Structures are given as C-alpha cells and as structure tokens.
Amino acid sequence: MVIVFRDPGSADRLVAHRAVKRWPGETSSWQTQGDANRDPDPWPVAADDVRGRVRWGVPGLGSVVSKLSGWPGAVALVGFPLGLLAVSECSDYMRRRQARSSLTANGQRLHLAPTQLAAANLHSEGGPTPSS
Known about the structure:
Helix content: 25-40%
Number of helices: 3
Order of helices and strands: EEEEEHHEEH
Largest sheet: 5 strands, antiparallel
Mean pLDDT: 80
Radius of gyration: 29 Å
Strand content: 25-35%
Strand order of the largest sheet: 4-3-2-1-5
Number of domains: 2
Number of strands: 7
Shape: elongated
C-alpha cells in the first residue's frame, strides 16, 4: 500500500512511499520505502502524519511533469489544452454560422427559434423532416 504523508524534513511537503512494515506499539506507525530507493526510510511515519493513500497512478507521468518546468511546461500543460479548446470553439462557431447563413428564403434570411433551426438543420442534412 502506498501512503501519502507529511515529510519529516519539511512539514509543508508531502511524500508518497510504499508502507513496507507496520511498527508495533500504542500508536500506529509504519516503515516506508520509496520505490526508487534501495533502503527503507530511516524514520517511522506516525498515523497522524498520513494524509491519504494512493489508489491509482499513471506510470511515468511524474517524470514527464517534473521535466516540464518554466515556459515549456506552462505551454505544454496549460497552453496546449487551451489552444485545443479555442480551436474547437472556433470550429463550432463557424459551423453554426454557416448553417444559419444557408437558411434563406427568397434571398432573405429566415428568423428561426433555436428548436426550429435544429429541425431545419436535420432536414437540410437529409435527416427526418421537421413536423409542422
């Protein structure tokens, strides 16, 4: 079981290590060991210091995130998803705009409610005809 606990060397930092042994005694404490460490941690982890348990993880994600620091990290972790969202929204906007402009009668634009517009789009794409 991998537990998340307060780092004994720095109280504002959290560490996730595997609990390898439970120490006997009145208060619960565990001996932990990091997966990348050869030896167990030299300090016991008290139950009061445990903040949670790791339920699942993505192998290798931590090393990728730790390498992405500064501007490259900001672009990769924030800018790229934001750019995808912007492209998706612009594409959707253009598709809706084109669908509205294609609905004309005698050279004049039709003024339709959103439900009528959806029904008209279905009809123009070969879908079921709207009921009157």
